[in-house]
UniProtKB/TrEMBL annotation:
Source superkingdom: Eukaryota
Lineage: Eukaryota, Viridiplantae, Streptophyta, Embryophyta, Tracheophyta
Keywords associated with the record: Signal
Gene name per UniProt: LOC104248006
Entry's family note: Belongs to the GASA family.
Name recorded for this polypeptide: Protein RSI-1
UniProt keyword Iron-sulfur present: no
Stretch forming the signal peptide: 1-29
Keyword Signal: yes
Length: 96
């Protein structure tokens, strides 16, 4: 009986870890990207703008530095602090 209780406890702990890992990834957006992931993430991020070329240029530059792209096509920058805090000389956000 003790062995069965151990298995149930282990499976419960493993399940909780996987749920936490999934939730963390949802909250964090696209954190911890590999450089090869930047272009597809930026393509989606810039899909709703009419200024695709500059959006892609800056998004890929920000992604290469921060290895993060916020989820969605607009907003959610707080999920990527590096991406969110990178500013131009005028104090505007450098990253789309």
């Amino acid at each position: 009986m003790a062995k069965s209780g151990y298995n149930v406890s282990f499976l419960l702990l493993l399940s909780m870890f996987l749920i936490l890992l999934t939730f963390t990834n949802m909250v964090e957006g696209y954190n911890n990207l590999q450089p090869r992931d930047c272009k597809p993430r930026c393509t989606y991020r810039c899909s709703a703008t009419s200024h695709k070329k500059p959006c892609m240029f800056f998004c890929q530059k920000c992604c290469a530095t921060c290895l993060c792209v916020p989820r969605g096509v607009y907003g959610h920058k707080q999920t990527c602090p590096c991406y969110n805090n990178w500013k131009t000389q005028e104090g505007k956000s450098k990253c789309p």
